Amino acid sequence: MGSVDASETTVTGWAARDATGHLSPYRYTLRKTGPEDVVLKVKYCGICHTDVHQVKNDLGASKYPMVPGHEVVGEVVEVGPEVSKFRAGDVVGVGVIVGCCRDCRPCKANVEQYCNKKIWSYNDVYTDGKPTQGGFASAMVVDQKFVVKIPAGLAPEQAAPLLCAGVTVYSPLKHFGLMTPGLRGGILGLGGVGHMGVKVAKSMGHHVTVISSSNKKRAEAMDDLGADAYLVSSDTDQMAAAADSLDYIIDTVPAKHPLEPYLALLKMDGKLVLMGVIAEPLSFVSPMVMLGRKTITGSFIGSMDETEEVLQFCVDKGLTSQIEVVKMDYVNQAFERLERNDVRYRFVVDVGGSNIEDAA
Ligand SMILES: NC(=O)C1=CN([C@@H]2O[C@H](COP(=O)(O)OP(=O)(O)OC[C@H]3O[C@@H](n4cnc5c(N)ncnc54)[C@H](OP(=O)(O)O)[C@@H]3O)[C@@H](O)[C@H]2O)C=CC1
Ligand SMILES: O=C/C=C/c1ccc(O)c(O)c1
Ligand SMILES: [Zn+2]
Ligand SMILES: [Zn+2]
């Protein structure tokens, strides 16, 4: 952490200044530690494709300077006087949201990620009027409600991708009643979210089919991740042979794509769960859902409760994420490689072990 004045701490994060998305060191202040706040020194932060969408303004709502990063693992260095869940020295995680209204139906049902007044961990404005900034930074201040303990048995760098990618697949499987052993699931797009989808679904006892844009990941998917089957989406013979075979598909593709080839893979009552953030309309003809009573739905990360659950699920099942750990001075190359589909399967930045004052 940086210098401390009477009220605010100055920290360094790596920020994008414009839609080129190039990150470089940026100094800003953290708010004074409030009664329910946890101050954490960042150790590791995963790179999610949403970070690419955000720094490049793919959704048209990006504000700069923007320090991305929402798969954050750190060590607690200070807590406010009303913090009961954490103490200095704890290893903790922070994900996609850091605030909610606590009063609406989603908040009262403990699915605060669906609160219309949620506060994103970056590219948003906090209750004090300051911009929120994410985890590619030396430290963060976060309300204890949005902090989870990393359980013993999970390495901190391994835990980082679980805070977004992991809970993002766990939540819909749980919510839509898709945790039953023996189900046949499809994972469309084998990236950061998709590879956790394979691992989590396999651990639930599912038969898992990866549906990929190429043959490049076939051996890894089957041998390393434990997938049961592998389809190349452009191979019409393979796709036809697999028609009417899946109970659900988790669709993680981050770009516009046709839905009909995937709807055809679903059995009657099958569910297509959209995960990718795509700012263009997707289309399908209605018989593709009517003839088979199929559902197209979506899901957004997971609740704080589910985040705690997925962390424990991974400990209990012995699951880890498959990651490439890099230093902060490699972050721009890592973003570029992620964008061109060249990572197996998640970059995690060793923020604590980097000299983050130096630009690449
Ligand atoms: N709903 C939610 O709560 C969340 C949404 N997201 C969103 O999910 C999406 C995936 O995120 P993440 O897993 O981090 O991204 P990755 O880039 O790691 O993975 C996406 C995968 O999709 C496939 N893919 C990539 N580009 C294309 C394309 N143009 N056409 C077809 N397939 C493509 C590739 O798999 P293959 O090589 O197998 O084809 C790639 O590995 C993003 O849009 C992200 O913003 C992320 C987290 C939470
Ligand atoms: O990576 C996590 C965030 C996902 C996300 C989903 C939907 C949306 O509109 C976003 O801006 C982000
Ligand atoms: Zn994410
Ligand atoms: Zn709310």
From TrEMBL:
Its cofactor is Zn(2+). Its EC number is 1.1.1.195. Pathway: Aromatic compound metabolism; phenylpropanoid biosynthesis. Keywords: Lignin biosynthesis, Metal-binding, NADP, Oxidoreductase, Zinc. One of its GO terms (biological process) is lignin biosynthetic process. It catalyses: (E)-coniferol + NADP(+) = (E)-coniferaldehyde + NADPH + H(+); (E)-4-coumaroyl alcohol + NADP(+) = (E)-4-coumaraldehyde + NADPH + H(+); (E)-cinnamyl alcohol + NADP(+) = (E)-cinnamaldehyde + NADPH + H(+); (E)-caffeyl alcohol + NADP(+) = (E)-caffeyl aldehyde + NADPH + H(+). Residues 21-349 form the Enoyl reductase (ER) domain. GO terms for molecular function: cinnamyl-alcohol dehydrogenase activity; zinc ion binding. Homodimer. Belongs to the zinc-containing alcohol dehydrogenase family. This is cinnamyl-alcohol dehydrogenase. It comes from Triticum aestivum (Wheat). The lineage of its organism: Eukaryota, Viridiplantae, Streptophyta, Embryophyta, Tracheophyta.
